[in-house]
Amino acid sequence: MNHIFYFLAIFAIIWESLVVTNPRKVGDFVKSFRATKDKTTMQNAYSFFALGYILWIIIGFFSSQWVLFLAMFLMSYIIPKRWVVTRFLDALISLSILIFMVINVYHLHIDVHELVKQFLYK
User: How far apart are CA 102 and CA 89, in angstroms?
Assistant: First the structure.
C-alpha cells in the first residue's frame, strides 16, 4: 500500500514540473477554468486531477511524512498565486518537497517529525 501511495507522487511531481517550466501558461489555464461555465475536456481533467491532488495530500497527513504534507497544504493557501513569480516559487518548493518525500521514504529514512520537534524545542 505504501508503494501505491508514493507512486501517486509521480503525478504530483509531473504537475509541479509543468508549473515550474511554464507558470504563466498554467496560471492562464487556471484563470480560464474559473471564468467559464461550460468546461472543456481538459478543464474537466484538471478538476479531477486537482481534487485527487488535494485528497492525496490530506491522506498524506496520516503517513510518516505528515509534516511535509502539512507544509505543502499550508503553502497552497499561504502563498498567493496571483503573480507568475509566486506561482513559480510555490511550484519549485512543492516540487522539492515532493522529491525529498519520495527519496526519504525509500532511501534516507529521516524522521522529519523528530527533526522539527528538536528544532522547535531546543
Answer: 20
pLDDT per position as a tens digit, 32-90: 777 777 777 877 787 888 888 889 999 999 988 899 999 999 988 888 888 888 889 99
Expressed as residue numbers, the domain containing 14 is: 2-121
> Can you state the angle between helices 41-60 and 9-21, rounded to 10 degrees?
120
SS3 108: helix
Q: Which amino acid is at 70?
A: L
Single pTM value for the model: 0.84
Q: What is the largest CA-CA distance in the chain?
A: 54
- Number of folded domains that form the chain: 1
CA distances from 32 to 20, 28, 81, 102 (A): 19, 6, 14, 32
